[in-house]
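question for whoever is on the cluster today: can someone run the full assembly for these? two chains, 601 residues total. i dont have access anymore since they changed the login thing
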Amino acid sequence: MRMARFWRHGDRPFGWITLLAALLLLGLVGGIAVALWQNSALSRDAFGLEFLVTSRWDPAIDRVFGALPFIQGTLVTSALALVLAIPVGVGAAIFLAELAPGWLSRPLGLLIELLAAVPSVVYGLWGLFVLIPAVAKPLGVALNGSLGFLPIFEGPVFGPSRLAAGLLLSVMVLPTIAAISRDVLFAIPNSQREGALALGATHWEVVHQVLIPYGASGLLGAIILGLGRALGETIAVTMVIGNNLDLSASLLHPGYTMASIIANEFTEATFDLYLEALIEIGLILFAMTLLINLFAQLLIWRVRRRTVGQVRV
Amino acid sequence: MTLATQHDSGQSSLPAAGSAAPPRPPGAGPASAPATRIAIHNLTVHYGTFCAVRNVTLDIPANQVTAIIGPSGCGKSTVVRSLNRMTDLVPGARVSGEAILDGENILRPEVDVVNVRRRIGMVFQRPNPFPKSIYDNVAYGPRLHGVRDRDLDEVVERTLRGAALWDEVKDKLHQSALALSGGQQQRLCIARAMAVEPEVILMDEPASAIDPIGTLRIEELIADLRATYTIVIVTHNMQQASRVSDVTAFFTMDEDRAGYMVEFGPTIEIFTNPRNQLTEDYVSGRFG
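^ ran it for u. tokens below:
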């Protein structure tokens, strides 16, 4: 009897086990951070904060390392991917959740979920053999021809480029954004739609005045998941970005990302400083994704507090 | 209970309204005793193969409160939802028959539903304020229909006063509507419907999710609104129907579960001297 009370009929050990699982997760994140930090000591001592803002990557002669081209490449390609994927992804979600009849919405939704499960190396192959020859170069030539006066569309035009990587990433994050946004829209109570329609709102007005504000925090979450995939994507980007230390602003030039330099050169890192410079890039990528997610979480909280508030019925 | 004839003449036009008020179609107002606002003729609604309500013929009188009562599943809600075309949202719903508003059959597929819904507002069973401020909830409809921002303050205040909610919320207009109590939320939803100045307000069991005090407030509000609007209220609460309505329609179900209207008449007649045995059984509590 006393034992039963102490264990609270199993609730207490259950609580401990789940606490342990949660702590394990926290420990893993902390462990990764510590390992990256310790194993990049040589590089951090040698270059300090300049590592973040210099662009020489010379393992052969001077043994000098700077991460700026990779940071720039990662940020530019991910941003491009989001700019392209958000309108299409959210648009597709609106169609699936609000406009498409059931017989079309269900199979189409399944297809989108399948797309999210395609391995990235397959996307990479498709990017290499289809996207670059069919889209990136002709598109690049057209952009350079019409808007070449802008630094971001400066020539010469290459096939493998930041543009190609951004396009491919947008295709890859599209299903994530579309599928989650659709679920967010599905979860909005019908009474919200009816309330607006009954006041004489059109479908479009319901979507952009009622549903999008109501689901804002969820839609933001969908976008952040997409961004997470874009930031860390390695193999597909490596296959189409051209792997070049070019630091120009042009989307039409080849570039490099943090993930792809690590993947490309980790096995070739013949001396300790080289290896630790790569690990420091890993540390930066880790910190960057952590910061972006933290910022996104704050944004989601703010949106949620502003819209949902306290519900009493 | 006030019977309708007392407030028929001259009450049909909307109260002095800002620039938002659409001109009322000529000839719409009733000249003499109970004019019909919506004439429903042979309304039948199917959901797929299931017939939810069959051959309803009912004249909804202008500037009166019409209650629709009856057991669960008898098609009460379906009737009101078809009047502002909410049935359009249900896949597989088919509506036939007529509902004539100012000479136009609003059930025809070609009719401009946005316009129908503007003229026939609706309040739902559970309060469904938008997760916006109280002000923005009331302003939502007027904004949709092009009321300019500088006129909105006046529209919001006038509407909230009309809904007897102004004194309770005037100091927190810009706080979330979701922080209000359930009853206040529902009165806010009524105000939101009033803000677009409809001619008819449909209420689908508006107090069923509200506590007794909140219910009382809503009933008082309905009594006030009758001067300006034509109101149709669906309720499963017979006391409520007898308290708030001028005329009552009693619905029940056929053997195939299709709803139909049994009897329609002045509320006092339906409750004290029904012509039909089914009505008598229902209002005296022997059935349903």
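summary bc i know u wont read the tokens: Confidence is low (pLDDT under 50) at residues 309-313 of chain A. The two ends of chain A are 42 Å apart (CA to CA).
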